Amino acid sequence: MGEVFAGRYELIDPIGRGGVGAVWRAWDQRRRRYVAAKVLQQSDAHTLLRFVREQALRIDHPHVLAPASWAADDDKVLFTMDLVSGGSLAHVIGDYGPLPPRFVCTLLDQLLSGLAAVHAEGVVHRDIKPANILLEATGTGRPHLRLSDFGISMRKGEPRLTETNYIVGTPGYFAPEQLRGAEPDFPADLFAVGLVALYLLQGRKPDSQALVEYFLAHGTPGAPEGIPEPLWQVLAGLLQPDPQARFRTATGARKALTTAVEMLPDPTGEEEPVEVFDQLGPLPPGYGPDGPLTTAAPPAPVPGTAQPSPSETGSFHLAPPPQQPPTPPPTPAPAPAAAPAAQAPVAPAPAAPHGPAGAYPPPYPVPVPPQQAATQPYTAAPTAPQHLASPAAVPATTAGRAPARRPGPPRAVAIPVLLVALACLAVGFWALTQT
């Protein structure tokens, strides 16, 4: 099994790598589910402060993948998120190339919805790009987008962790004001959303610098080939170099997109359906859909056996120990055939191995206790020899029974005692006649 981090998270296999840490598929032993765990690689104060900011972000939204919990172990720290298996937008473009406009509008609507929730918390993402936008593995069904990686995000008004002339983000997705060192603001995120939309529609990374230069020199260009005019008008509102001329909120851009979708032409039957595959691959050996396979399952109850029941205090009584099957008594030897008689002979019954003499054995086999089986083996009562007693001469009521012993002392003792008593009685009578 993998390494257990902080006594809770079992790291299974790496599934990604970022600028400051690796992302692992992990098993949460407390919540009994698979999660994505981002393990911090560096331990300097600057990186730790970014980690604290990122793990402190708590946004509950279906299109936002924010940290759920965190843990520390010696000089390592990690935080966990939901495990998203469909890969990023880069995987989809790698599989299909340019995507149909209506499919792009669905993704763009979900991205703007999640970004509106992030901005409502006063947070600027600052690193929106295809690799940070993940998808659930929905197959050919409706896609489900998740905005992730808040490693360099910050709240408006918080102190910056970099110098003023130091740019943080991914080259190619910067807004023009970011290149000038302006304070992070929401319109910068919207500019990156417009570049992501172009990437999805054209199947390649857009040249943001050439696009900004064209906007500044010639104004808003016409719609590129393959992009419907209503959709291009929304993208142009996101890509304006001047942040004051750009959409100011994600909610406003989303409303404009909804209007544009209504004016799009109906899809043709020639479009290939887009399928979002599972990009994580199978679990390593030793793991199953419900967790590690080494966890021993409780034994299944055996039908017909009593199960332990809870006591009054809530604990459980122990089940009784297993009973050994009773040892059947050996079959007694058959009695010799008897001569015909007027009365039907009665076969002698074997004497009971345990109990008083003369008692009949019960009609069912008597089990021998295990601890006495080695010292008191069961043997059948011997049959009387034929020359001593014939079954026909033995009354039916006493057949098979030893003669009952009469009470009193033996005859050798009783006769002398009786003679002495008679002598004493005679002496007593003689003494009475002499008085």
UniProtKB/TrEMBL annotation:
SUPFAM superfamilies: Protein kinase-like (PK-like). Signal peptide: none annotated. Residues 290-310, 371-382 have a biased composition (Low complexity). Residues 264-382 are annotated as: Disordered. Its EC number is 2.7.11.1. Keywords: ATP-binding, Kinase, Membrane, Nucleotide-binding, Serine/threonine-protein kinase, Transferase, Transmembrane, Transmembrane helix. InterPro entries: Kinase-like_dom_sf, Prot_kinase_dom, Ser/Thr_kinase_AS. It is an enzyme of class 2 (transferase). One of its GO terms (molecular function) is protein serine/threonine kinase activity. The chain crosses the membrane at residues 413-432. Residues 9-258 form the Protein kinase domain. This is non-specific serine/threonine protein kinase. It comes from Streptomyces coeruleoprunus.
